[in-house]
Design goal:
By secondary structure, this protein is of the alpha+beta class. About 25% of the residues lie in helices and about 35% in strands. A hairpin with a 2-residue loop joins strand 16 and strand 17. The chain starts with a strand and ends with a strand.
Length: about 350
């Protein structure tokens, strides 16, 4: 289930009582004073009782609920449910919750009788992009007389993904090209660019009638001849977004946010989006949530590696993979920190 650890360190007040008891006991022995020795024992007894009469933190169960996907910098509502599964009254204690990517939070739990539970709802601020599959819950309580500090640590499972911070996006090419520019890409309905003129046919939309050309036909003695505009066929290009920045750059997180949300916006104008970065499996599709998930885990393994341990051959192999994406109907855009921004490498109209 979950890992658990119990510690019971003595508080400063407890150490003070122990030292005073030791000093008085030493004086009482030298002076043969039984009353002073009794006082020394009286000071020491609360320290012993604080260890024996400790709060039963082992009987506490804690359940954590949270949205699976969060956005960095945008508070989300989370819930901790604390229950006393023991057989005796549990005095009030504190709960400190740690979860990677989220700001730590400390909450006060009121006294709980046997079988009682309390639900603590609170806003939580995601502070770091990334993924996590675990969380730590720390229970803190002072024993009777305040002579010992009792602490229990619980590690549980929690699948949470923190998406990059939401930022203004940039337009990544329209993705809509002529047939000559992007042969083989997905064909869209006729667009709005005029491709030519022809005579009216059954089924043509009257909105496509070119009245100026029709008027010229009337001037030539053909008043019943309607001329319509032939719309230029359009295709929807594929987008390949290549992230090449370095995690050591100060503006790395800003680039990740810009690339992530711009890629989401580009979904509506491209057949599909392919995401690529050195050392990270490529992804293709049109699901916005999965795009943000990909950016949430971007380069997480390299963040834990020293710079001198990164294989330099990977860079050359990655460049070959990027060049292999160059094809008709594909727009390749690079997201880099030097220079900062999104820059078209291959493809596109014009």
């Amino acid at each position: 289930m979950s890992k658990m650890r119990i510690v019971r360190p003595i508080t400063p007040g407890g150490w003070l009582a122990i030292m005073l008891a030791a000093v008085l006991a030493a004086i009482a022995v030298r002076a043969f004073n039984p009353w002073l020795l009794l006082v020394a024992f009286a000071l020491f007894i609360p320290v012993v009782l604080s260890q024996l009469m400790r709060p039963d933190l082992k009987s506490v169960s804690v359940a954590f609920r949270s949205p699976e996907r969060l956005v960095m910098g945008e508070p989300a509502e989370q819930v901790l449910t604390v229950r006393n599964d023991g057989r005796r009254l549990l005095p009030g204690f504190a709960v400190l919750h740690h979860c990677r990517g989220l700001a730590p939070i400390q909450l006060a739990v009121p006294p709980l009788g046997p079988g009682d539970q309390v639900e603590l709802t609170f806003p939580r601020l995601p502070v770091q992009r990334g993924r996590t599959d675990s969380h730590d819950i720390h229970l803190h309580a002072l024993a009777p007389f305040g002579m010992a500090f009792h602490h229990r640590c619980i590690r549980g499972k929690a699948e949470i993904v923190v998406h990059p911070e939401r930022v203004p996006t940039v337009e990544i090419d329209s993705g809509r090209l002529s047939l000559e520019d992007a042969a083989g890409a997905r064909l869209l309905p006729a667009g709005s660019e005029p491709h030519g003129l022809r005579e009216w046919r059954q089924g043509d939309d009257r909105r496509h009638v070119n009245w100026r050309a029709t008027a010229r036909q009337a001037a030539l003695g053909q008043p019943d001849k309607l001329i319509v505009v032939v719309q230029e066929p359009e295709v929807e290009a594929r987008l390949v977004l290549v992230v090449t920045g370095s995690v050591q750059d100060e503006d790395w997180e800003e680039l990740v946010s810009l690339a992530a949300w711009s890629a989401c916006k580009a979904v509506g104008s491209h057949a599909d989006v392919t995401l690529m970065a050195p050392g990270v499996p490529a992804w293709s599709g049109t699901d916005v949530q999965q795009i943000l998930d990909w950016f949430s885990g971007l380069d997480s393994s390299r963040l834990e590696q020293p710079a001198d341990e990164v294989d330099e051959v990977d860079g050359a192999e990655f460049e070959e993979l990027v060049r292999a994406q160059r094809a008709a109907g594909v727009v390749v855009v690079e997201a880099s920190t030097r220079p900062f921004g999104l820059h078209r490498m291959y493809g596109g109209a014009g």
